[in-house]
Amino acid sequence: MDATHRPKLKTAFKKARVIAPLHTAGPVAATPDGSKLVTCVGEDALLTDVKAGVEICRFAGDTESITSLCITPSSSHLLLFTSSLSLRIYEIPKSLTPQTKLVKPIRVVARAHDAPVHVCKADPTSTYLASGSADGVVKVWDILRGYVTHLFKGHGGMVIFNPGAFIDAIKCACADTFQSGERHWVYDYLDLSLTLCASLSIPPMR
Fold this sequence. Notes:
Elements: E1 29-30, E2 36-41, E3 44-49, E4 54-59, E5 66-71, E6 77-82, E7 87-91, E8 107-109, E9 117-122, E10 128-133, E11 137-142, E12 147-153, E13 172-178, E14 181-187, E15 194-197
């Protein structure tokens, strides 16, 4: 093609949409259907419509960094722990329409643990929450009423959870590394027994 007839390339573009920063640091959680995403931007928790890439709302924090969070399987509640050791429970808006006002917690437990919580997960019925702290304590909470139903104390190491599904029976795991191996203490919600096992696979409740 002759250079004189070559079409002129477009060098300036008008932005059609802007997606604000979604994540700076901290935990991330998504609803089971993948339609909504909760991320941490500074000390705030942000709810985003994944398909549209639009911010739905922000959840009112306590100015402290978020250490752990999770969404109930019913997508009804956001459960959030901060470095102030508080537990904050929020109702997740059902509408995808963006909100300008901060979503305030429906319940706050000022001192949920005596050490930072780095893992938490809700059971399939969205009734209970299990949280594990750095001092080796696991607590099971009634989500709507905000009180502890069970408290498990392990060996003093940091608490971790089995990465598999969290079942109705609510089993929690503590792990401590010693020498070249790991030992796993498993608490059974059904009979509160304590066992030592190599695998953390969890069978469904009968």
